[in-house]
Amino acid sequence: MTTSALRDLVTRHPGQADQEPFLEVVDLRVHFPTDDGLVKSVDGLSFALDRGRTLGIVGESGSGKSVTSLAIMGLHTRPASEQTRPGAQLSGEIYLEGEDLLAKSPEYVRSLRGKRMAMIFQDPLSAMNPYYTVGHQIIEAYRIHNPVNKKVARKHAVDMLGRVGIPEPSRRVDAYPHQFSGGMRQRAMIAMALSCDPDLLIADEPTTALDVTVQAQILDLIRDLQSEFNSAVVLITHDLGVVAELADDVLVMYAGRAMEYGSADQLFNRPVHPYTWGLLGSMPRFDRPRSERLLAIKGAPPSLINVPSGCPFHPRCSYAARNNGRSEEVLPELAPVETGHTVACHLTQIEREQIWEHEIAPKL
Amino acid sequence: MFAYIVRRLLWAVVLLVVLSMVTFSIFYLVPLLGGATPETLAARYVGRAATPETVHLTAEKLGLLDPVPVQYWNWLKGVFVGASYDYGAGVEQCPAPCLGYSFVTKQPVWPELLDRAPVTISLALGASIIWLVAGLSVGVISALRRGTIFDRGAMGIALAGVSLPIFFTGLIALAFFSYKLRITAPGGTFVPFSENPARWAYSLLLPWITLAFLFSAQYARLTRAGMLETMTEDYIRTARAKGLPERRVILKHALRGALTPVLTIFGLDVGLLLGGAVLTEKTFSLNGLGKYGYDAIVNQDLPKILGVTLVAGFFVIMTNLFVDLLYGVIDPRVRLE
Amino acid sequence: MNHSRSWRGRALAVAGLSATLVLAACGGGGGEAGSQQGSSSQGAQAAFNAASTSVVNPSDKKGGTLKFANEGDWDTLDPGETYYAYSWNFARLYGRSLMMFQSAPGKEGNQLVPDLAEAAGEPSDGAKTWTYKLRKGVKFDDGAEVTSADVKYAVLRSTDKQIFPNGPAYWDALLDLPSGYKGPYKTPNMNTDSAIETPDEYTIVFHMKKPFAAFDYLAQQPDTMPVPKDKDTGAKYRNSIVSTGPYKFADVQPGKSFNLVRNDQWDQATDPNRKALPDRIEVTLNVNADDIDNRILSGDLDVAVTAVGVQPAAQSRILQDPNLKANADNPLGVRNWYTSIIPTVAPLNNIECRKAIMYAMDHTAYQTAYGGVFAGGDIATTILPPSVPGHADFDLFPSGPDHKGDLDAAKKSLEACGQPNGFATNMGYRAERPKEKATAEAFQQALGRVGIQLTLKPYPQGDYFAQYCGLPPYVVKNKLGLCTNGWAADWPDGFGFLSQITDSRVIRPAGGSSNMSVRIPEVDKMLDQALTELNTDKRNQMWGEIDKRVMEEAVIYPGVYSKSLLARSKNASNIFVTDAYGEYDYLGLGAQK
After folding, report:
1. Which residues pair with B280 in a beta bridge?
2. Counting runs of H as helices and runs of E as strands, what totals does chain A give?
3. How far apart are CA A166 and CA A174, in angstroms?
4. N or C: which end of chain C has fewer CB within 10 A?
């Protein structure tokens, strides 16, 4: 499919259809050569995101979610200091406000990191350097991109800590990461990521390591900060509840490819991919009778070295047999279901609607 | 923190007393238990022409005829209040701390220890700085260039450094650099720092480098391993994600993490070395504590052995304390109680 | 007296050896030995071992500095207690004893000449009394004149064995001291005139318990070097010695170094024996032994003062490089490495069985065990080494043209003693001494050729004489037929060499004597008689006869007359070996710069 066609298919926010998307990923492929073979972590992924909007990327472990975000940040390009082994092979385009980051020098991308695009990680305890104070790490991030003296930077750090809701920020700024509770620590990491007002924030499983009550606070915080800074947010998670809470658009990934892509409303109310159905069905919910079994997806995630032929999901799909073997041979391309909603599946629309109505929806 | 230090210092004193008792027992008591008599002990300190009477007189003079606990008590008393020594033509006062008189040279031990200590300290501190810097640098570069010729070469040289004994490399270095090329000082030409700092450094240059060669190997490997480990940590990825230049990521973030085990081992190594780098001192004819202790053992000079053991023990105890305190400083997650 | 230091660790030897191989591979010989500096202007190019018989680089030029180094610490510089040959050699620089060994090469070095005394001692009362007259005008370095009281004091203080346990003990044993005398520190007021009299300021008279014809040898000991009583500090005197020689002490740092500078109170007019050429002598202590060798070879050091010989590393360098070898010497020491054949252990009570051993042993193997012809020594066939006056050349048990043993003669002896197929016995040696181990193994192999089976028994060297080979009941009980042994005389004369190893009366049932095997009443008489013979030549001849008589008894197997390999200084002049010590004569050396 041509680039322009792909770009047409990509979800656009109504009203912005004629503007350049803020972030646009086109046919991204990230392959890792290993001794066992070529690991195709991301194999043809495309999506777009505007400022002020949140994209949730959902999938199981190994689906390529984190690899995608690292590719955007340019963190797969190993620095010269580690160019002793073959690294990741990237192809495709990643446009940030019109600039293809994959075509730029690593040094240029580095200058953007922290300043225009920032990332927060899953485990704030291991993601922060235990040997330096939180304040030091925030100041460091700030001063790299802003030539100010230490005093000004420190004040800014205190401000940020206050902004993210940490009490007594002028005291906590000199505390070490291990001296914070889990939730406070994540807030501190958010403060660090946002210290330079980035336009793009990528949050990789930001609440997975936290208690449920704290989860809600963090998600609220992200939402508040997003509206305050008008940043674009990419939220990576395996937790559909988080997606439901925060995302405007949702991308479902499997084996390095997009399975379904649409707005949150579309995906939760009118999902069309068997994998999405499986994800929704395997969410435990209080308001369902317990006697009913969960809709588990049979099987396990595939090897990314030997991706199943045809539709990568076919070994685990309950409906793959309906296609007379087409699922095993032909790779389904993303095709539109409704405006702004695409899916990669061999099922016909009629089949989808039927299955949804009779088998899936009643159980959710 | 303050209470912790005070407690440790008190423990140090206790340890030193215990150390003195154990050393005393080993050298003064155990031979007696093994069947020796005070005379057979004293026989080591007399000449070829000694008669049994001479041996007995010597045993008496050296205090070996007293029961061992009495000998120890006399020695301990000397440490705190001083002792007197009859040198034949008169009696001399040995002020506190009096660690006794050498059985062989009849000199008081404490002033000799004070005289030798600066040599060993100079040797240990100088060499340790060199090997720390060299080891860290090579280790960092090797880790970053893992598998390249540099890495393999550096680790190969490191293996040589660790495997070749210092009396081999030292003698060759002396013969080549000092006597053939004449660019470094010959052995045994130590000049105290207070006398002439330039000559002090010159006289120690070759021993420093040779000794550092031995140790930097270990530190390069340690740093390399530590770096390889920290480079895979999440916070390195975060540091890069913040847009930090790679150099800063390596030196301020990765190395910092790898440094902790290196520094602890460094402290312990320096502590042991302060007690006397025996082989280095003997090879380069430096009159430090190590050589002093070695010669004392060869000559079975018990008061000297006791003195050196205590000084070495003191250094080890102090550096251990220092390392423990340092650990609390360099790793904020450690809390000292 | 000790010539050797305690053996060095093998590890250091191996390391030094490998270091040398690297250096040799780097063309080690080229630089230093190629240049003939020092020898070219002075005459013919010196050859290997030239200094043993002649003077290398003769010169009368005064001035310059000599550098000495000791791989350990001096035993003590106190002349009243020091007991090493090199120290006695060196002490003549800062002290003057009544008599001294002449500073001259080779055999001339063995001659006694009067130093503090005007002439040799005057015997009287059947050689029990000896009188010396001191030279006038000899001064201590503080300006006070030396009197006979100072000499008497020096001798008496050396008898205090509690303050000075390390020195020789001849005076204690031989002087007629009053009973209960404990030296001038403990019994200062006792009248000692029965032992030493000082009728006037320049006369000193010694009274011995028994005749002692070789008294002049006693008088050359450093403990007759005068000590001023008001400056004597007992055990501490070693650090503040008052000099009577041409040099005095400066910058003494105990355990580290000391220097000798010119003694301005020394008057050449009173001293015909010394030239005192160098201005300054610097001595460094506790220097690494291999380092010492390297420095002498490179010219940074002049003398390895203990004269035990170069380390194995330097040894191979020197012997393989003709240039280096030409600048080395191989003097004979005053020491015999031998093995005692003990007649109290059957069947060695039969002289023929002992003779079998004398014939069967491989003499070259003994030499090899000790390090070969350069570092070990020359094959010995007598007890007295050649450098001792009285030495006679004879070989009572020729071991074949190649010195590997006469097996036919051995077998004949075995038959004569009733053991035609050999016998079994044990051999003791000092475990810490590799050379003695090698010797024992050589015996085992050589004697095995005629059926004599040896079982080797190592013993700790510290107690070797007191508890094992030197303890007669132990020897009998454990059937020790052979024990390695060795002897170095305190001075090169028959008394010093033979009395402690051939006189049966020194053997104690409680052990400790070096004499393990010689119990010949005739020899005891001969020893006593020699001490009454005042004619030196006649007396020396008697020592030779005693040597032969003991050898006839086949109770000692002489191994090697020890030799050491010494490297010559590049800077020094007047380099020669003195037979008195088997070392370079330290008194004669001069410095070129």
Report:
1. none
2. 14, 12
3. 13
4. C
Residue reference for tokens 């990934």: A253
Please choose, from the candidates B292, B99, B85, the residue with its C-alpha nearest in 3D space to the C-alpha of residue C162.
B85
- CATH number of the domain that A308 lies in? 3.40.50.300
Instruction: Confirm if A158 and A173 have CB atoms less than 8 A apart.
Output: yes
Is residue A295 a contact partner of residue A363, using CB atoms and an 8 Å limit?
yes
Contact present, B202 and B114 (Cβ < 8 Å): no
Look at residue C44 in the predicted model and tell me its pLDDT: 44
SS3 A196: coil
* Residue A29 token pair: 């492929």
Whether residue C291 and residue B186 make contact (CB cut-off 8 A), yes or no, is: yes
More confidently predicted of B250 and C27 = B250
**Domain membership flag for residue A226:** no
Residue with tokens 């001191």: C134
Positive or negative: CA dihedral B96, B97, B100, B106: negative
**Contact (CB<8Å) A80/B246:** yes
| Total count of domains within chain A | 1
Strands (E), C312-436: 328-329, 332-341, 377-379, 424-430
Looking from the CA of C184 toward its CB, the CA atoms found within 13 Å total 19
Helices (H), C361-463: 363-369, 372-375, 407-416, 434-448
3-class state of residue A125 by DSSP? helix
Give the domains, in start order, of chain B with CATH numbers. 2-106 (no CATH), 110-330 (1.10.3720.10)
Q: What is the pLDDT of residue A291?
A: 61
pLDDT for C10 beyond 50: no
Q: Which residues contact A277 (CB under 8 A, 6 or more apart)?
A: A271, A295, A355, A356, A360
Confidence band (pLDDT; 50, 70, 90) for A295? low
Looking at this predicted complex, what is its ipTM? 0.85
Residues of B in contact with A85 (CB under 8 A): 147
C-alpha to C-alpha distance for C159 and C266, rounded to whole angstroms: 28
Report A:20-49 residues touching B (Cβ under 8 A).
Answer: none
Residues found in chain A: 364
CB C480 within 8 A of CB C469: yes
Confidence at residue C36, expressed as pLDDT on a 0 to 100 scale: 39
Question: For the CA atoms of C443, C445, C448, C454, what is the dihedral angle to 10 degrees?
Answer: 50
Q: Is residue A122 part of a domain?
A: no
| Residue A259 within a domain | yes
- Helix crossing, B289-298 with B302-330: angle to 10°? 140
Tokens for A194? Answer: 């946002």
Predicted confidence at residue C524, as pLDDT, reads 95
Residue bearing the bigger pLDDT, A363 or A24: A24
Q: What residue in B sits closest to C300 (Cα-Cα)?
A: B179
The amino acid that residue A354 corresponds to is Q
CA dihedral A73, A75, A77, A83 (to 10 degrees): 160
- Determine phi and psi for A116, rounding to 5 degrees: -105, -25
Alpha-carbon distance of A261 to A341, in angstroms, equals 6
How confident is the model at residue A17, as a pLDDT? 54
Nearest CB to B89 within list C169, C233, C300: C233
A193 CA: distance to closest CA in chain B (Å): 7
Count of helices and strands (H, E) across chain B: 15, 2
pTM: 0.80
Range of the domain at A10: 1-112+248-264+283-364
Taking 60 as the threshold, does the pLDDT of residue C4 lie above it? no
Q: Is residue A106 part of a domain?
A: yes
Chain A: give the shortest CA distance to residue B257, in Å.
7
From chain B, the residues in CB contact with C167 under 8 A are 47, 49
Separation of first and last alpha carbons in chain A = 35
What are C101-128's pLDDT values in tens digits?
A: 999 998 899 999 999 999 999 999 999 9
- Nearest-neighbour CA in chain B from C258: distance (Å): 13
